[in-house]
Structures are given as C-alpha cells and as structure tokens.
Amino acid sequence: MDNSIFQAYEDEIQSLEEEIKLLAEKYEDSQQESTFFSEEEILMSIKSFQKEFEGESKGHESPSDLKAQLESLEADLSFLMKFTGIQFTSHSKKTVEKTRNKTVQKHRLSGDCHSMSFQLEFQLLEMKNKENVSAVITDLSVVMDSGEDSDMSKFVSSIEEHGNLLTFFRSLSSYAEWFEHRRCTFLHFK
C-alpha cells in the first residue's frame, strides 16, 4: 500500500484519539461536578426547584405567554448585538472548585466585534454570605488580533491586570467600530 494511505489512516486514528480524550475529559468534569453534592443536598435542591417551578407556572397563564416572553428576549438580544456590534460565537464553563460558600468557575468566551475577533479566558470566584453573593474575576487573559497597534496592546494588558470586563467590552465596541470606519476609508482611497 502507498505511504499516503497509511498517513491518512494514521491522521484519522490520531483525530479519533483526540476526540475520545476530549469526551473523556468532559465526562470527568460532569462527574466531578455531580460529586460536589451529597444526596441530601441534591434532594433539597430538587424540592426547591419544584416549588419554584410550581410558583412560576402559576404566574404564567399559558405557553403563549412564555413564547411572547422568549420573543421579547430574542428581540432585546438582537438589539444589543446591533447596538454594540458584539456577537459571542462560543462559551464554555468549567467548575474548578465548589464548596458551600465558594465557587470557582473557569470561563472561555470568543466572539467578534465588528471586524475584530477576541477570545477571553477568566476565572469567576463567587463568595456567598448569608445576605449576598459577591463575584470577582481573576486570571483574565485576552487574545485579540490587534496587529501592530501598541495602544491596543497596552489597553489589553491593563484590562488583564485589573480584570475589568465591563471596561473591556465598552472600549472594544467603540474601538472596533472606529477601526472598521478607518479601514473602509483607507480602502476607499487605495
């Protein structure tokens, strides 16, 4: 047989092995998340969920109300995407640590803002007190195709240092919009 055929089979085998490894990791993550709770906690959670569901179902008179609410939320989301230019293309969440008062989750986001793509990776630390819940972003990492723009690189470094996602999204929206305008203008004169 030809070496190229063997190479194709080897590539396919390697691809399948990587897929199996990823699926095994996802399975372990889901098993790990479910082992954080005792049977009593799971039963209490199910009972509270059922009570909430019964309360919500009494508040909604019919499925048409739910459909109208869903359509309203979709319209709001569409408006926000048009207004900001930010569209998320993927999101993944992995629980790293969970205790009674503390939860640490690792998030990965990717998306586009006008013509600029971005990827975010951060950990969200949630601390629960008797009265409230506080959340802190740690280990923020931002990857963008900013090219040779040193101002953007400085901005990204500052955002990563302070962990301020709101500032990042506000600034990204403005910067990407004007970046697109500049690009179109320069293309016009070329």
Automatic annotation (TrEMBL):
<protein>
    <submittedName>
        <fullName>CENPP protein</fullName>
    </submittedName>
</protein>
<feature type="coiled-coil region">
    <location>
        <begin position="6"/>
        <end position="33"/>
    </location>
</feature>
<dbReference type="GO" id="GO:0005634">
    <property type="term" value="C:nucleus"/>
</dbReference>
<dbReference type="GO" id="GO:0000775">
    <property type="term" value="C:chromosome, centromeric region"/>
</dbReference>
<dbReference type="Pfam" id="PF13096">
    <property type="entry name" value="CENP-P"/>
</dbReference>
<keyword id="KW-0175">Coiled coil</keyword>
<dbReference type="InterPro" id="IPR027801">
    <property type="entry name" value="CENP-P"/>
</dbReference>
<dbReference type="GO" id="GO:0034080">
    <property type="term" value="P:CENP-A containing chromatin assembly"/>
</dbReference>
